Automatic annotation (TrEMBL):
The keyword Transmembrane does not apply. This is Tafazzin family protein. It comes from the Eukaryota. It comes from Rotaria socialis. SUPFAM superfamilies: Glycerol-3-phosphate (1)-acyltransferase. One of its GO terms (molecular function) is 1-acylglycerophosphocholine O-acyltransferase activity.
Length: 266
């Protein structure tokens, strides 16, 4: 099903477009960094894994970060908590995110704002070969960074759920196999509760557990040599990412228990 609005990204962004986009991302990032550093209490484990992937990976190696989804403010606040502010002011190094078109892009002003913020509108249920996923793959093939919530929605129950295969397609079909960094977080739905009136809260604790980077070059190459279908490769990749993400869940829950107990022990 095509998007209900015009494609929001120019084929050849002008200097003015890039400047406005940079300002948009930079201002949102600055506010988010302030909120996570001074208004919330954040504890991060293995943050260097993500920092090294963002800052030090080979320029030809694309990056995919995969996280659980507990709140509508997960992005950009999580990103702001884990990377230097200067990345928000360097547009070409900043992540592309995937956002549901029927939630994030419902109004013209939202379409403009979120597209300037490098958010790609995705139609849930429209499959892994829709235009937005093709566009995401193009960004990876240019060495870019895609951040994806592979649960496909805000997970209100917080129970492990089957990840969508879109991330598997991005890994399997990229020109250069992306580096994949999983991260699990707890507490973002305290910062922005999933109930009306949806007002951000101050002084809340957030815990983030970053997993070791995953490399799929060998797996993808071997499966292709064995004439395995792209669907089989997508599933195999997604299964591994899902397994690693929910291993982090257990570790993050313990980290969050320690984080929440730090006040009483001080």
């Amino acid at each position: 099903m095509p998007l209900s609005f015009d494609w929001p990204f120019p084929e050849k962004p002008s200097i003015l477009y890039k400047a406005v986009s940079t300002i948009t991302i930079g201002l949102v990032g600055s506010f988010s960094k302030f909120w996570m550093k001074y208004v919330s209490s954040v504890r991060i484990e293995n943050g260097e894994f993500l920092l090294n992937a963002v800052l030090n990976r080979h320029p030809d190696r694309p990056l995919i970060t995969v996280a659980n989804h507990h709140s509508c403010m997960d992005d950009p606040l999580l990103i702001a908590a884990t990377i230097p502010l200067r990345i928000f002011w360097t547009r070409h190094r900043m992540r592309w995110a995937l956002g549901a078109d029927d939630i994030v892009f419902t109004m013209k002003k939202h379409q403009i704002f979120f597209s300037l913020g490098k958010t790609i509108p995705v139609t849930r249920g429209d499959g892994v070969y829709q235009r937005p996923m093709n566009f995401a793959l193009e960004q990876l093939n240019q060495g870019g960074w895609i951040h994806i919530f592979s649960e496909g929605k805000v997970n209100l129950t917080k129970e492990p759920m089957r990840l969508k295969w879109g991330v598997g397609r991005l890994v399997a079909e990229a020109d250069v196999c992306p580096l994949v960094v999983p991260l699990y977080h707890i507490g973002m739905d305290d910062v922005l509760p999933n109930v009306e009136p949806y007002v951000p809260q101050v002084g809340k604790k957030v815990s983030i557990y970053v997993g070791e980077p995953l490399m799929f070059d060998g797996l993808v190459e071997e499966m292709k040599k064995d004439k395995r279908s792209l669907q089989e490769i997508r599933k195999a990749v997604t299964d591994i990412i899902q397994n690693e993400l929910y291993k982090l869940k257990v570790k993050c829950e313990e980290l969050h228990r320690q984080h929440r107990g730090s006040d009483s022990s001080s």
